[in-house]
């Protein structure tokens, strides 16, 4: 069944799964010098829904200014953090999600607003590290901006062990 705790709630699980799969897929693409993908309207709509739902939490460290997020080319806009001065991030939903997840460098968004608000958003919107608590222990996933590497550390446990039969490893005779 579903995991215990907060993730038992279906929409919470769906939100987190889409975000995680999208962001980590893009991590791999961008690390290999691929740009943004063309997304279907349905995927853009799902990502926008998640940006609207999750950005308040993901921007919880932002205290020096307000933040509005705007889906570029549409009338869709949400105030994530009220406050003055207010910065605005504008871009496609997937790029906005990358930005609020801490991938500011590869995310193709347009920040605007008073310089002090934009600087506050760039400095403190999200952390560079997330801790995921799993049944076997904590997994820490961090992003090193300097070289764009994703680092995953934590305890591990042996889940499966097997031995290959020697005949599978033998060289074929000609």
Summarize the structure.
The chain has 174 residues and is an alpha+beta fold.
What does this structure look like?
There is one protein chain. By secondary structure, the protein is of the alpha+beta class. It has helices spanning 10-31, 41-58, 93-100, 115-124, 166-169; strands at residues 66-71, 77-81, 86-91, 110-112, 129-134, 137-144, 149-154. The strands form two sheets. It has a four-stranded mixed sheet. Helix 2 (41-58) packs parallel to helix 3 (93-100). The longest helix has 22 residues, at 10-31. The termini are far apart. The mean pLDDT is 78.
| Alpha carbon gyration radius | 20 Å
Please give the order of strands in the largest beta sheet: 2-1-3-4
> What is the percentage of strand-forming residues?
15-25%
Overall pLDDT, averaged? 78
Estimate the helix proportion, in percent: 25-40%
- Judging from the principal axes of the Cα atoms, what is the shape? elongated
Order of helices and strands: HHEEEHEHEEEH
How many E strands? 7
Tally of DSSP helical segments: 5
> Residue ranges: pLDDT <50 for 5 or more in a row?
none
Q: Sheet bearing the most strands, described?
A: 4 strands, mixed
* First-residue to last-residue Cα separation: 52 Å
What structural category arises from helix and sheet content?
alpha+beta
